Amino acid sequence: MRAWGNRTPAARAVVAVTGTCLLVVLLAWATLLGPDQVFTGPGPRPATTTTTASCIPPPVGTDDDGTAVPAPEDPAGREACDVPAGSADGTQEVVERPPPLWVQVLAWLLLAALVAGVAALVLWLLATVLREVRVRRARTEERSAVGFAVLDEPVRVAEQVAADAAEQDAVLRDGDPRNAIVAAWHRFEVQGERAGVARRPSETSSEYAVRILDIADADTGSVSRLAQLYREARFSDHPVTESHRAEALAALAVLRNSLGVDA
Questions:
Q1: Is 102 in the same domain as 199?
Q2: Are residues 173 and 211 in the same domain?
Q3: pTM of the model as a whole
Q4: What pLDDT, on the 0 to 100 scale, is given for residue 252?
């Protein structure tokens, strides 16, 4: 089954068509000959037997008064005896008998099974071809949709970054600088989800945010600086001051300008 599954659909179709043709040929041959000829053959030929010289045939004629004419004496001293059933010249005919009923029933059952097998094979072949056509059509449509989505992703991400600029700045300016920088960085995840870019199961939140900005072709310097500020605010123990907040605001401004979309 594994070897069969590794074959291409074209190879499977060729094998199926070849098998179907062979079965159809066998079915046609069997139908033309009939079950008797298929399973029993033409039968034995009539056998010709000749009587041996053990006796001579009795007389076959009579006198005018109905008396049988005695057989002439045989020089070999053989007596008269009955001729075996058959022709007068000593030949016997072998009568052909039809095959038993169970043989005929078995023949018709096998022919019916053959017809059913051919029909099932043809239906399976048609189903395989139709399924392959549907799969190829779905793949073509999926590739077209994915290709269009990939080409459109940078524009959608850039638009979402610009549309969320006011909210992101408000988050960055509010509260403690450490928490503000962390919250502002997480806004990139929100922007990516709004743009229709799904997060991969293997990605961390930081990796997802970086990929979102990379799709939008944002300025790499500003992205690196914002990522560094996020890691300091999220994982470091040293103080995060207003100067860090100011650097984050400046990096955000450069990032948005690199996208070419008005915030």
A1: no
A2: yes
A3: 0.45
A4: 94
Q: Kindly list the distances between the CA atom of residue 128 and the CA atoms of 6, 20, 138, in Å, as whole numbers in the listed order.
A: 15, 14, 15
Neighbour count for residue 85 (Cβ, 10 Å): 7
Q: What is the pLDDT of residues 75-88, one digit of tens each?
A: 666 666 655 544 44
Task: Write out the residue range of the structural domain in which residue 230 sits.
Answer: 164-259
Tell me the C-alpha distance between 224 and 231, whole Å. Answer: 11
The 3-class secondary structure across 84-123, one letter per residue, is: CCCCCCCCCCCCCCCCCHHHHHHHHHHHHHHHHHHHHHHH
Q: How many helices and strands in the chain, by DSSP H and E?
A: 9, 0
Co-location of 187 and 253 in the same domain? yes
Q: What is the DSSP string of 54-67?
A: T-BPPP--B-TTSP
Which ranges of the chain have pLDDT less than 70?
Answer: 1-14, 16-17, 21, 23-96, 140-151, 261-263
Q: What is the largest CA-CA distance in the chain?
A: 156
Same domain flag for 176 and 223:
yes
- If asked whether residues 128 and 9 sit together in one domain, one would say yes
- The CA-atom distances, in angstroms, between 170 and each of 217, 223, 233, 240, 251 are 24, 19, 17, 18, 15
The whole-angstrom separation of Cα 29 and Cα 263 is: 81
Q: How far is CA 161 from CA 14, 169, 188, 234, in A?
A: 55, 11, 7, 22
Tokens 């049988």, residue located: 68
DSSP 45: P
